[in-house]
Design a protein that fits this description.
Largest sheet: 7 strands, mixed
Number of strands: 17
Number of helices: 25
CATH superfamily of the largest domain: Thiamin diphosphate (ThDP)-binding fold, Pyr/PP domains
Helix content: 40-55%
Protein name: 1-deoxy-D-xylulose-5-phosphate synthase
Low-confidence stretches: none
Structural class: alpha/beta
Number of domains: 3
CATH topology of the largest domain: Rossmann fold
GO cellular component, one term: cytosol
Keywords: Isoprene biosynthesis, Magnesium, Metal-binding, Thiamine biosynthesis, Thiamine pyrophosphate, Transferase
Strand content: 5-15%
Function: Catalyzes the acyloin condensation reaction between C atoms 2 and 3 of pyruvate and glyceraldehyde 3-phosphate to yield 1-deoxy-D-xylulose-5-phosphate (DXP).
Strand order of the largest sheet: 7-6-8-9-11-10-15
Bound molecules: thiamine diphosphate, 1-deoxy-D-xylulose-5-phosphate, magnesium ion
InterPro entries: Dxylulose-5-P_synthase, THDP-binding, Transketo_C/PFOR_II, Transketolase-like_Pyr-bd, Transketolase_C
């Protein structure tokens, strides 16, 4: 698509936006949408959600006095228009790239990013905190939380509503951006409830007539809302959920009708106390391929903007998530106790494979990681073997659920942590780098990290047979290309690693898929005249002490490599083992240091952190005195 933008480059702040006439604002939104599509085609990101929030972002910056007023975007994956409006039009070309701007709001990146994001369901609590602080400090600023229907399913969002609803005076607007979608189809009772409110023909016809009759002054708007609620109670035969929590409920309004949005936001502007505006949007709005397959276009990768053809890498090894997904289906066929649990990531972790074949044996519980773990614990306590798959970074939300509800109770829940290690372009909020250190501290928990596809498959089988809490972590992306599909299952000895290569100068100790690049480095070190023995631990916990004893007795120099944080990580555990046993060994640990890792390709980030193939080679040569 040729770049032909008349208005796009005239806006470099919300101040410029406010100078546009309503008609120009509409045209500007069209250009915004086109620019987002063009850019995401060559530099991928979260396309569909951002397309759905173009008018919303424009209307908010048009009506509110940002950055004095604060807009908190939940998750932050829908903020591309917001970023472009707030002075990052050129920088948008660099989004999610090393050294470029983030794909999510970042407070350090812009004064307009009132709160950083990446994880879901945060916005109401954070915005309520800001609104409360403004009240305490006597500042008259407005605070708005924008939260999607998917993110509203998270417990934290309800905690925020519960708390904020009890505060009569605090000036907080929650905008519920409802597109009936999370990444996949929205799920749960809330989805049905929102659908009922937004599609009740009688209520909406009545509301539209009433709103049309009356001019939208705050006083009259409140009258509309009260009258609307009375009808809603009659029509929907129940009170409004948000009204019950003491939020004034407005809407639903069409989130792509700029005029209606601006009018409504202006009319609501001076109404005090907690209030919620229900906005209906279409995920992928304005780009037909995205509107038609909203799940795929959530984050589609590169594509041809003219044809909508996605440019997917062809061939190559299977993704780890697909090894998980297909193996889970096999295990479910093998054992009637096996069920799948996912907090709103069925396509992300490929549990949709089981979901398609055995819908009754698979549960998408909404964006609710804590609940997913405790629900799994309940299933396990009553005789099932749940495979609960949670991205490593999102599992951080369920730390106590793992400890209290699974580990202490010694329940056979298989916790599969996808996206372990550095994930790449999503950046600092999404790297799965704390899991081994954090969960390594939990007594009795088995933590395994496969090095390749057949090992992931065998570990899932081993976990099914173990009868105890079992965690398996593996990375984003593709495997090593080893045969796995249809191979016979092998039960692996728990807590036992293996020696992959023998040598005499240096011991290399690795865990998980980081061992593959390390193995290549070892090969090159051997070619350079350094004899390396490579040990793959396979289990973060329990550590294979027999294997470490062999390494400790034979070598004075040990290099460890892990795709996780070094503080409390596997390298530290190995060094502690040698120290405690009085071995005469010097350990050098490679992994992620005590710092935040930003966005970039995984290869770039691994190199920066110092544990890619080159870095391991350097460490091996240095350990051998070369
Ligand atoms: C705690 C947490 N769990 C899961 C995710 C992954 N995730 C990102 S966006 C999303 C769906 C959000 O749905 P919604 O809020 O309705 O926004 P939409 O994508 O529909 O615009 C999910 C599940 C996340 N970011 N944070
Ligand atoms: C915004 C968000 O949290 C998800 O969309 C995440 O970016 C998905 O990551 P994957 O691309 O690794 O599935
Ligand atoms: Mg949604």
């Amino acid at each position: 698509m040729a770049e032909n933008f008349e208005l796009l480059h005239t806006v470099s702040s919300p101040r410029d936006l406010k100078k546009l006439s309503p008609e120009e604002l509409r045209r500007y939104c069209d250009e915004l949408r086109r620019y987002i599509i063009d850019q995401c085609a060559v530099n991928p990101g979260h396309l569909a959600s951002s397309l759905g929030a173009v008018e919303l972002a424009a209307a908010l910056h048009y009506v509110y006095d940002t950055p004095e007023d604060k807009i908190v975007w939940d998750v932050g994956h829908q903020t591309y228009a917001h970023k472009i409006i707030t002075g990052r039009c050129e920088a948008f070309r660099t989004k999610r790239r090393l050294g470029g701007i983030s794909g999510f709001p970042r407070m350090a990146e812009s004064e307009y990013d009132a709160f950083g994001g990446g994880h879901a369901s945060v916005s109401i609590s954070a915005a309520f905190g800001m609104a409360k602080a403004a009240e305490l400090r006597g500042e008259r600023r407005k605070v708005v939380a924008v939260i999607g229907d998917g993110s509203m399913t998270g417990g934290l969002a309800f905690e925020g509503l519960n708390n904020a609803g009890a505060s009569k005076r605090t000036d907080l607007l929650v905008i519920l951006n409802d597109n009936h979608m999370a990444i996949d189809q929205a799920t749960g009772a809330l989805k049905n409830y929102l659908l009922k409110i937004s599609t009740s023909v009688h209520y909406n016809r009545f509301k539209q007539r009433l709103w049309g009759l009356l001019s939208h002054t705050p006083r009259l708007l409140r009258l509309c809302q009260q009258a609307g609620n009375a009808v809603k109670q009659g029509v929907l035969n129940k009170s409004n959920l948000f009204e019950s929590l003491n939020f004034r409920y407005f809407g639903p309004v069409d989130g792509h009708n700029l005029g209606e949005l601006v009018r409504t936001l202006r009319a609501m502007h001076d109404i005090e106390g907690p209030k919620l505006l229900h906005v209906m949007t279409v995920k992928g709005k304005g780009y037909l391929p995205a509107e038609h397959d909203q799940s795929v276009w959530h984050a589609p990768g590169c594509f041809n903007p003219d044809t909508g053809e996605r440019i997917a890498p062809k061939g190559g090894p299977a993704r780890y998530q697909d090894v998980f997904g297909e193996t889970l289906l096999e295990l479910a066929r093998l054992d009637a106790r096996v069920v799948g649990v996912t907090p709103a990531m069925p396509s992300g972790c490929s549990m949709n494979i089981l979901m398609r074949e055995m819908p009754d044996r698979c549960f998408d519980v909404g964006i609710a990681e804590g609940h997913a773990v405790t629900f799994s614990a309940g299933l396990a306590a009553a005789g099932m073997v749940p495979f609960c798959n949670i991205y490593s970074t999102f599992m951080q939300r369920a730390y106590d659920n793992v400890i209290h509800d699974v580990a202490i109770q010694d329940l056979p829940v298989v916790m599969c942590l996808d996206r372990g290690g550095l994930v790449g372009e999503d950046g600092v909020t999404h790297h799965g780098v704390f899991d081994m250190a954090a969960f390594g501290a939990v007594p009795g928990l088995v933590i395994a990290a496969p090095m390749n596809e057949p090992e992931l498959r065998d570990l899932m089988y081993t976990a099914l047979r173990s009868g105890h809490p079992f965690m398996i972590r593996y990375p984003r992306g593709c495997g090593e290309g080893l045969p796995w599909r249809g191979e016979a299952f092998r039960e692996l000895p728990v807590g036992r690693g293996r020696r992959l290569r023998d040598g005499s100068d240096v011991a290399l100790v690795t865990v998980g898929t980081a061992g593959n690049a390390a193995a290549r480095a070892a090969e090159r070190a051997v070619e350079a005249g350094v004899s390396v023995a490579h040990y793959d631990l396979r289990f973060v916990k329990p550590l294979d002490e027999a294997l470490l004893d062999e390494a400790g007795r034979r070598f004075r120099r040990v290099v460890t490599v892990e795709d996780g944080c070094l503080r409390g990580g596997v390298g530290e555990a190995v060094a502690a083992f040698f120290n405690a046993g009085g071995y005469d060994v010097r350990v050098r640990s490679l992994g992620i240091g005590d710092e935040w890792v930003e966005h970039g390709t995984p290869a770039q980030l691994q190199a920066l952190c110092g544990y890619d193939e080159e870095a391991v080679l350097r460490a091996l040569l240095a350990a051998a005195g070369k």
